[in-house]
Design goal:
The structure holds 2 protein chains of 2 kinds.
Chain A: E1 2-8, E2 11-18, H1 26-30, H2 39-42, H3 51-65, H4 71-98, H5 103-124, E3 133-134, E4 137-138, H6 146-167, H7 172-178, H8 186-189, H9 196-200, H10 208-211, H11 232-256, E5 276-285, E6 288-297, E7 304-308, H12 310-322, H13 331-337, H14 342-345
Antiparallel strand pairs in A: 1-2, 3-4, 5-6, 6-7
Chain B: H1 6-10, E1 44-46, H2 56-60, E2 66-70, E3 83-88, H3 97-101, E4 107-110, E5 124-125, E6 138-140, H4 161-164, H5 177-184, H6 192-196, H7 203-211, H8 215-223, H9 229-235, H10 239-242, H11 256-265, H12 270-277, E7 288-292, H13 296-307, E8 311-315, H14 324-327, H15 336-349, E9 352-354, H16 365-370, E10 374-377, E11 383-384, E12 397-399, H17 400-408, E13 418-422, H18 426-437, E14 441-445, H19 457-465, E15 469-471, E16 474-481, E17 487-498, E18 507-510, E19 516-519, E20 522-525, E21 529-530, H20 539-543, E22 546-547, E23 550-551, E24 564-566, H21 577-598
Parallel strand pairs in B: 7-8, 7-10, 8-9, 10-24, 12-20, 13-14, 13-20, 14-15
Antiparallel strand pairs in B: 1-4, 2-3, 3-5, 4-6, 11-21, 16-17, 17-18, 17-19, 22-23
Classes of the chains: A alpha+beta, B alpha/beta.
Chain lengths: ~350, ~600
Amino acid sequence: MMIRLKVTGDTVVKATTEVGYLHRAFEKLLEKRNWMQCFPVLCRFCVPEPDPVEEAFALAVESIEGREVPERAKYIRVLVLELARMASYMLWYGGQSGSLGLYTVGQWSVGDRNYILDLFEELTGGRVYHMYIWPGGVRRDMPEGFGEKVLKTMDYIEKRLDDYDDLMFENAIFKRRTKGVGIIDKEKAVEWGVVGPPLRGCGIKSDIRIDDPYEVYDKLDFDVPTAEGGDIWARALVRRQEVRQSIRIVRQVLDKMPSGSVYNKVPNPQKWRLPEGDAYSRIESVRGEIGFYVASDGGLYPRRAHMRGAAYVHAVTLLERILPGENISDVSSILNSLGACPPEIER
Amino acid sequence: MSFFDIKGTLKPLTALKQIGKKPHTLKDIPFAEKEASDNYRGLHYNELEACIGCGNCSTICQNQAIDMINIDGIEAKPGDSGLRPRVDNGRCCWCALCVDVCPTGSLSLTKDYLFISTDPNNFLWTPGVDNPEGKDRVSFVSTFDLSLNEYGRIPMPELEGMERVKSFAEVVLGYNEEQAREEASRCISCGLCTEACPEHMHIPEYINAIASGNDEDAVRIIYDNNPLPEMCGKVCTRRCEDVCAIAQRDGDAIAIRWLKRYATEQVNNVDLIKEIVNPDIKESNGLRVSIVGAGPAGLTAAYYLTLKGFDCTIFEAHAKAGGMTMYGIPKYRFPQDSLDKQIEYVQKIGVKIHFNTKVGKDISFKEIYDNSDAVFMGVGFPSPWTLGIEGEDLKGSIQAVTFLYEINNGQKVDIGDKVFVIGGGNVAIDAARVARRLGADVTILYRRRVQDMPADWEEIEGAEQEGVHIIPQAIPIQFHGDAKGRLTTVEYLMAEMVPDDRGGRPKPVAIEGSNKTIEATAIMGAIGQQGDYSFLEGDFEKNIQVERGRFVVNEKQQTTDPKVFAGGDAVNRTADAISAIADGYRAVKGIEEMLLEKS
């Protein structure tokens, strides 16, 4: 993506955003791949957080076909989604503080994120791209002793969050550079299609996990943090608390994990025809609500697959509206606080 | 916020407490690799011996990173294409879909992930060949339960065991549309079956047509090189299924035969077959080909020669066409109307059949030979082998093929109520199951073990379900009769299996003194058949060479007399319908080449 800024002195007068050429027409590529071959492409929609895209597509496919998913697989999916949320937030810590010159937090959080990637490696075989959630359930069961390792990592990360606070949220520079900066008007937020932490940072309680629960979120106890102000600070506060909520969810999931199979077999991928029909699925990713519209004409490939991504709304249309009047040195910080993810924009 | 935030200025300094803590980064990078997890998706490894070169990995790879190549020391053989996957690690994204679709489980990913080279061509790896050490580093493996292949076959609806013996009604009921689509959808289109089929039928193509709901396409594809597919759909020995990639790992082979049956059953009259197949019949070229015997080989040769514009006439000794498939196969396996439909179609194309015309008796071979531009012999193996033991000439001792012929011909055969069948091939099982349908108590005596029986396992299972007893490792030594020359008892010896020193299958050796004698009203020998070439007289007997009971032919089915071609049981050792069809099909090319190149 690209932002063209018109400035007077250091103040932005006009911002024009443009979609760039970072990635390769993912949605079109899906139309040339059979239902299983889609998955190695799907995870590349958003590099820092590939799992929600897999989940959204899998949900849509399962909805068209009416395929049930085993209970254990649902719990494992939530586990993966929450670990992915955390891993993605750890990257955000680095980006948000780094855009203000506070590099130490990023070095810590990205280092700690690797402990979550270690978990992914053990569970799915891949560190960043997992290709793990797919129609019918998940690809492999949890290895022996995996739950204990997850809990250990959760304890470690929970402890580290306090260290991050000392360096970031308690930091005078961070407070001064984020409070009252990049304000989203609460009145306009819904109209503009703002979702996720930026919307919750406007004091609006909205989370698909609660509003339209998928998998087993309705069986889990967690809060949806909100903050007032609609500025970078409010959005940062929301994210800070959400990491703690994710840890809470992960612990409950491991506690309630049922036994049983993890995969309801799908037909041979080469000849797997989905019935004619379409479906829209939506889930809560780190960037906010993402949705997948999938249409099948009864054939081997998706007739159309379209993703409604939060990043496109936030970093293309919203950014143009909130940048005017801001200081040019705050632009990268504002961009980061909106959860922009260029590959997802240029899908 | 105050202008000077004392707490906010001092708090970040707490980072200093991290000094002296052990860093969590690896120190010796890049010299020390991080050990990957037990589930890691790293570089590929392929178990070369277990791989069958089906190419499913290459098909699923959405990055087109895998191609199938020839490897030194690996030859193509039935059930193995001889090819092995080569991975372009510059394209691979390690999604491991290739692993999850590998039907044999030979392909896996390893813990190795570091590979550095300045030459892009070095990124082309043949797993297993280029990294034999990967064997001990395997991590992400294919599992049977979580595989993307469907290993379980859709069960074929059949009549209940005891219901079957009440009549000659067809046992197999056939797939319905939904079952056929589902079964066809299991196929991975590797094409190993095509190579294994003597006739090289276009199996993946017609299965794909069935899976996509295009039954008419399937029928067209099937008739491309098999004019008798309904026959094959019911009674083929299906060597294709033996090599099916899906069956290599405790899975059930795709029901190729039943799918062909399904497709052909969708077209239930001859006019419709002709309309769908829409064969391209060439104008007459004025050349005459005579065919001896209207079995599968002769019918196939006649059909395709007629399409090519030859004038074909078949001379058939019996009243009906079909050869062994008419007179040797019981009607509960291959009903008469199915066969009639096939023959009628072949005739409709323009093939002339002279029934009840035995060559050598009603018409001489010389006459046919002199009046034709080429002759094809599909004469089969009509004469049964005899056991060569005492008492075989008793009344009640009959041959299984003769018995099947008479039953199929509508004659009555008195076999009494205690029947013994000797042999373990399909003919033995057929005779036993037919005898059960006549109300007899039937026992099969076989000199080897049940698992050594050359008969189709489904037939053996079917016989057992119908109440046929099997006594394995039993060698008959004598039949006893009463004063009127009527069979009363059969005496046999038990055998033990002795391993063959030369690596062959174990041999049955009779145990001295283990004699048993059982009452019998009829006994049927079913230990094989042989040819009857008495119709070849004079020069023909000399010119047309026969070796070990079979005609000597070249790769075009041409005998030692250039004008005479031969096929079917009298030529090939596999002695089944599909091999006969393949012979007929090859002969068509041979005859065409010989006659058209000559003229």
